[in-house]
Amino acid sequence: MAELLIALNPAEDSRLGYLLRIPQTGGDLLFRTSDTWPRVKALYCHPVSLEEWPSEPEIVERLPLRSCQRRGASIDVIVHRGRENRSQLVFTTARGRDAVFWQSPRTRKQARPNVRTPTARAQGIEELQILVDSHERYAYRFGAQQATTVAKALPCGDYGVAVDGRLVAGVERKSLADLVSSLIKGRLRYQIADLAALPRAAVVVEERYSQLFKLDRVRPAVVADGLAELQVRWPNVPIVFCETRPLAEEWTYRFLAAAHTWAITEPAALQRISGVTIDIAAPAETTGPSTAEVRAWAREAGLEVPDRGRLRPEIWQAWQDAH
Asked: Where would I find the Cyclic nucleotide-binding domain in this sequence (predicted)?
């Protein structure tokens, strides 16, 4: 079985204290680097000749490889262990010179794209009020945008805006892992169906679309076909890939601001809103049973429901059919 080898660099005067040996079909590649794994930051790798590999290397790590494939300007490395098992060597340029960086999924997410997000108010709104679902973990703070947030239990989506107490737009946030998991398990279909009832809605993904085709625990074609099918079924709920979390946050802010302006200025929009949106300002007793009441009814009816969190749309539909 092929192995990724990391040895101590015998050159004591080098600031790159390790040698990284990557097996390749046309011949192994050898790099000097500063650590044994890119845990908190991407590691610079200086390519050197295989002649620098010691005759009796002091091996620090010997990692069996599941996969080590070159794809374009990068080498995807997957090792046999439970954690810290995926990484990538990227061949790029820095300050006009060729360079190689060793990165993991964690350090790649921390990387900043070569863009600067604007600071101007979206749609000229001085301070947009964004509703954040109270069940949302690690929610966007919109600290760099002209917006304030209010925590509220939303009927669908993780973020939304309201006009006259009525929800007019919503955005569901997804990491790549959450997107794939919810698609495979069928949750994404119900989430998009709920969003489609709003006048304006979208799903924002904190990743590039190209990363779908680097998945190794599920067939990429299955995920791509599933997303395409959802877009055809609900074309009014776009799925937008925004590369990084900050860019996804910026896109969410701009989308909700545009939806807020549209809801106020378009008379035809207001007519559509009055028929399909959910009145989030109304007290619970005028809008139907609470989640706890429906949960208790579902258990008595023999339906499987979680102990906490939202109920599936079919549970609410079953309650409505029964009453």
From this structure: 126-217
